[in-house]
Amino acid sequence: MASKASILLLLMGHLLVAQTIAQANFDRRQSQNNSRQLSPSFSYMDRFSGKLFQKIAKSNPGNVVISPFSVHALLGMILAASSGETLRELKQVGEFGKNHTDVALDFQRLIKFKDHLQGVELTTAMRVYYNQRLGGINTRFEEFAKIYYTAGTEPVDMDNGGVTATKINDWVANSTRNKIKNLISSKSITSNVQAILVNAVYFKGRWEKAFSTSATRPAKFSLTDGRTSQVAMMHSKDVYGFADLPELNATALELAYKDSETSMLILLPNKNDVLADLEQKLALPEFDLNRIAPRLRRQKVEVGLPKFRIEFEQDLIKPLKELGLRQMFSPSSQVINLLNQPVRVDQIKQKAYIDVGEGGTEAAAASYATVNRRMISNNPIFVANRPFVFAIRTPSSVLFVGHVEDPGLN
């Protein structure tokens, strides 16, 4: 069998959360979310998110953040260009129970969702760079990717790895406000590379209920191995979405973003040594994150949340193979309609970045000594002083998901 040229898939995401003193109406946002709860037609996206996150989290004991939406969107594009066993595996792993056009319509709706957001900045961008010498892109696929995924295409010189890497990295940096840099190296680009698919997701939001910088103070964070880490713990006492989840041995808190339908959902295990058990359960269909969200109830909660920043890079081929996606990485790959010749996928990389805090770290540090001890209260207390899971979600999809093992690590 003739060898196939290769294709690289690169994904990146950036999420920046900045707090302000603005207050918004929780009931209005909760009502909007309840009226637009996850449609059964979108539930396959959450099933894929849970499975992928569990595989990655299991092999990465440190801090983790990924954008399952980015991975799923690229797999959806490849679905449209595949046949045979490759198509079967993509449908199984990606939970694609529909044909490729219906899947594309779902992603088209989610990509356009950002146009209706007012209080947050959400950018999704996809691009296909193809080898100008080894063969052109399939024109039908090019039109399909543009219409449904808003994906641009551009011919590049794969013989000149330095120039092409710079071109791609510049596009990535621009798409993520310079938060994701140097995603691809010139060594990854050779004359045998047929195409490089890139996906970027950028999110910036402000809390609906603010954390005051004057309430931030040093605190101990219990690590899984029994040690402790010193962190900057933000504090607030306000009305939030809160739920006790005994079947997960955890509690949940929802922090809404200002003037939008997006939120951060935090799952805090009741003990600091059971994070892996929680993540394993989240891979089950009955515990996907968007099914947990409707159980949240509005009530006054005393919240403690550490500031944290994570930059995470992951080769996704191993976890995807563990989920059952194998043939498209082999010489017998049946990705036949993306370019003018069959190709195999050689790399799928994702680089993601998240920054959660008030946005004024130096000022917060100066106010540590001015805070008094809290009084005893009958309100529910949610203090994330041990490893936890977080997700940035809309009513119909999970944009980012990760876990924090040690907020003191960047």
What is the CATH superfamily label of the largest domain? Antithrombin, subunit I, domain 2
Mean pLDDT: 81
The CATH class of the largest domain is Alpha Beta
What's the story with the biggest beta sheet? 9 strands, mixed
Relative strand content: 25-35%
Briefly note the structural class of the backbone: alpha+beta
Q: Runs with pLDDT <50, length 5+?
A: 1-5, 17-40, 359-377
If classified by CATH, what would the architecture of the largest domain be? Answer: 2-Layer Sandwich
Helix content: 25-40%
Radius of gyration over C-alpha positions, nearest whole angstrom: 22 Å
- Count the domains: 2
What pattern of helices and strands is seen along the backbone?
A: EHHEHHHEHEHEEEEEHHEEHEHEEE
Q: What is the fold-level CATH name, i.e. the topology of the largest domain?
A: Antithrombin, Chain I, domain 2
Shape: globular
Tally of extended strands? 15
Q: How far is it from the N-terminal to the C-terminal residue, by CA?
A: 46 Å
**Tally the helices: what do you get?**
11
Kindly describe this structure:
Belongs to the serpin family. The protein folds into 2 domains: 5-206 and 309-355, Antithrombin, Chain I, domain 2 (2-Layer Sandwich); 213-306 and 374-404, Alpha-1-antitrypsin, domain 1. It has helices spanning 26-35, 43-58, 68-79, 84-93, 100-113, 139-149, 161-175, 275-282, 289-292, 317-323, 361-366, and strands at 5-18, 64-66, 121-131, 151-156, 193-206, 217-222, 228-245, 250-256, 263-269, 297-306, 308-315, 343-357, 381-383, 388-394, 397-404. Mean pLDDT is 81; it is low at 1-5, 17-40 and 359-377. The protein contains 11 helices and 15 strands. The longest helix has 16 residues, at 43-58. Strand 3, helix 6 (139-149) and strand 4 form a beta-alpha-beta unit. It is 28% helix and 33% strand. By secondary structure, it is of the alpha+beta class. The strands form 2 sheets. Strands 2, 6, 7, 8, 9, 10, 13, 14 and 15 form a 9-stranded mixed β-sheet that branches. A 6-stranded mixed β-sheet has the order 4-3-5-1-12-11, sandwiched between helices.
